[in-house]
Every structure is written in C-alpha cells, then in structure tokens.
Amino acid sequence: MAATLSLMKTNDGALLYQERKGSTACQKTYVYQKSAKTFIPVTVDEKGRNTVSIKDHIGEWLKDVFLPRGYPESVSPDYLQYQMWDTIQAYCSSIAGALSLQATLTGLGVGEEAATPLAATLTWLLKDGSGMVASIAFAHWRGSQLDCNSKQWRLFADVANDLGHLLKLLGPLLPVPFLAVMCVSAVMMALVGVAGGGTRAALTSHQARRDNMADVSAKDGSQETVVNLIALFTSLTILPIITSSFMLTWMTFVLCVVFHLLANYWAVRAVKMESLNRPRLLYVLHHWFTGAAVPGIEETNLSEPLLFGAAFIPNYFPYGFRTMLGCSFHWALECCRSNEDVMTLYSSTMDTFTQENYLLCTSLKRRQIYIIYRPGITAQEELEAVFMAYLYVLNSNHISEGSQLSAEYVAEGLSTTAPDMEVLTIVKRHAQKIFPTFLQNLQEKGWLPDKLHMAAAEWRLL
Q: What is the dihedral of CA 259, 264, 269, 275, to 10 degrees?
C-alpha cells in the first residue's frame, strides 16, 4: 500500500495519524488509546457518523480486483477510456460468437441421426490444423509490424474476428462443404490470435507506467472474463428466443458486429502513444517543417491513420518517395546507381558518411531513399537518419519542381543539375545543424525519441 502519512494532535491533546491509499479516496484515521497502549482506527466522526460506508468498501474491493495496483498513477492517462471501449467490444464479440457457435454445431450435424462423432471430430481436427499453420505463417509475415503499428493491426484482428464469425454463421447456408468453411474460419481466427495477442502486448507495454505489465495484463484478463460471463448469461437468456427466427438472428448478429467494430475503433483511437512509429513521425516532421513546431502527443495520435495504408504500405514519404530502413547496402547501391560505376557511388557514399552509424543512398529519378545502418546505431541516430531523409525529400522537390519551402530549411548551394550525392551531401550538413533543435522540441512536447518503432530491416554494414 502506497500511503501518505501525517502525525497530529486533536484539541484535547490525543495523538493521532492519518493515512491515504495512493491518490484514492480510501483514507483512515488512527488515534492513540492510552488504556490499550496502541493506536486504534477511528470509524466515526465527531458527530458519531460512520466515516467508512459499505459503498466505500465495495468500491475499493472492486478497484483492487479489476484495476492495476496504484491506479490511476500506475497506468497511462488513456487507460480508463480505452478499457471502457474494450469492455463494450468484448461484450458484443461474445454475443456474436455465441450465435456463430450455434451455426457451427448445426453444420457439424448436431441433432441429426446421420451425423457421427468421428466425422465431427475429424472436421474439428482439420479446422484446428488449418488455424495452426495460418498462425505460424502470419507471425512470420507480419510479426515485426505488430509493435510498430499496433493500433492498425488491432483493428485488423477485430475485422478478422467478425469475418470468422460471419463464415460460421453462413456455413450451413453456403453451397460448399462445411469442412471448407470451418477451415477458412479457423484461418481467420488464427490471424485474430496472432494480431490480437501481439498488439495487446504492445498496448499493455504502453499502459504500464511502473514496470507493472504483468499486473496490467492480469487485470485486463479479469475485466474480460467478467464481461464474457455477463455475455454468457445474456446469451443463455436471448438465444432460445432469437434463434427461432432467421431474421431476428441476423439482425442481432449485424448489430453486434457494428457495435463491436465501432467500439474497437474508438478504443484504439483513445490510445495516446508517446513513442514514434512511422505514421506519427511523418506527421510530426510535416508539421515541424511547415510550422516550425512539433505537434502534441494527443493531436498526433488523433491524426494517425487507422484504417488504410499505415500498416500495409508504411514506406512512403511525401511526393511519392519510397524509403527503406535498415536495408542491404548492396541492394541500395544497385538500385541507386544510374550510368555511373557502382564503385563511384560506393566511394562517394562512404566519404559522405564517415563519422555516422548510418548511410543514405538516394535516387531522385526513381524517388527512392535507402537508409543503411551500422552495428550499434542508437535510436537517436536512427531518428536523425529519417530526419535527414525527410529534409532531402523536401529539398529535392524544392529544386526540381520549385515548391515553396521555408528559407531556414533550404540547404544552400543546391542546383537542378547537381548529382544526387552532391545534393545529399549538402542536405546532410544542413540537417545536422537543425536536428538538435528538432530533438529538443520533441522532448519538450513529451515525446520519447529513444523509443522508436520504425520496422527497419536487420541488415547492418560492418
């Protein structure tokens, strides 16, 4: 119990102390009793009224059971709003799952004389096998993206969850073998397991503020269990009524899916992350270069795209430039050289970035930027490399198309006839002059520049 304590004396000289549990309303007073030679709790005030009500006891008990210890200081400020929407979506998902379960049992032949336990068992085993293979494949394909774009992949998991339930509900009506429907549905549910579990871990890491990830995760599990219990009793009550009507069943399912998706959207929209992934960093860079001010955490998170693009095509910078981070140096040299010998590009690149733990290879013609890392690169150096790439994009577009760019961000000495490496060298010098100011502005706004989620590849130039 984290408590604040103060010693004092009453008007009649009795010694007492008070303590409070964290910042909660749970406060207790103890007075020294000479006859007992100890401090005893005071439960009534000077008018004889009980100061600790049953409501207070119940409220504290519920808080201890379902909220992380030390709430609200032990979690992020967006915790309560996120959990509220998460509770609503879990309830709707449970109701939809109950409806799809009934359709699944119908498709397996429950209640039909021709159905055999062996056929149902084989169908179930093949369904599980399909899900296992899908979970391994998806984790390999997009596992590294779950940390970087946790909000987007969380929504993806919810859409996949509803599609899985929809397939189960449609299964008995489709003119295809029910086994195929079950296998496809299992694949969707496997994606839910991988994407949902991975993003839940990322969100828990954001919410835990006292190295209490396990406590936050455990209490989240308790909240979800209670919601599922409530949904269970709801299903037991309404299923016998609504399943007797085809129209009522589908209306209930559609309503649950709609509220489920809306609640999930507002849940992830409520999350205000202080770390920088690619969409948030691009938004910050855009506003800093156009307004010379770093936007706040809440504004940036509210502007982060959740539905399209950010999780699936995260490599694009302004003006159609494509930027690859942590890529192979060989690949970068082959892609960026034009008519010149690759050794010329290699030498000029190494000469330009002799003191840095990163290198940039660029091709203005192809609108491509490759950022190569050396071993031991820090998060701040990675941020500086992306900052430099962004400034290169702005200056390249400025000299090639004459776009308006504030004079303080235009690198001096550029021309439309200068080769790519000469432009990059000039931009590099200018970027390193203004980057410390940008970094300071980031920290002043509460951003964590040492916590980057940029989904860089693992190649390192030795």
A: 180
